Amino acid sequence: MADDNTVDISEIMVKQMNDRLAREKDIINEPEHYKGETLELQDVFKDFFGIKNFILICTANIIKYAFRLNKKDTVLQNAKKIKKYASMIIEAEENNK
Asked: DSSP 3-state assignment of 17?
């Protein structure tokens, strides 16, 4: 614990780490490369292809990320992408009732 005249380096490091995390983009849930000016690509897919085909697209992406789990990016990133696409399927099914 730091006294009044001493800088606590752990507090500074924690603050810097939190600031960095706040600035980083969420590449799993909000990837910039899939955002348009006003629309999300998943919304366009739902409208253009319909819910059934949207679910097939999500399923294909789950298979893609499962196959590359240990090959490209990190295992954690790919697992999170699988989870995201599974969540999109669940949401589409729940909203389609």
From this structure: helix
Which residues span the domain enclosing 58? 9-95
Q: CA neighbours within 13 Å on the CB side: how many for 4?
A: 0
* Strand, helix or coil for residue 50: coil
Partners of 40 in the β-ladder:
35
Supply the pTM of this predicted model.
Answer: 0.59
Count of Cβ atoms closer than 10 Å to residue 78 Cβ: 20
In the numeric block, which tokens belong to residue 38? 């006003």
How many structural domains is the chain composed of? 1
Q: How far apart are CA 90 and CA 58, in angstroms?
A: 10
Encode pLDDT of 21-49 as tens digits: 665 566 666 666 555 555 677 888 888 88
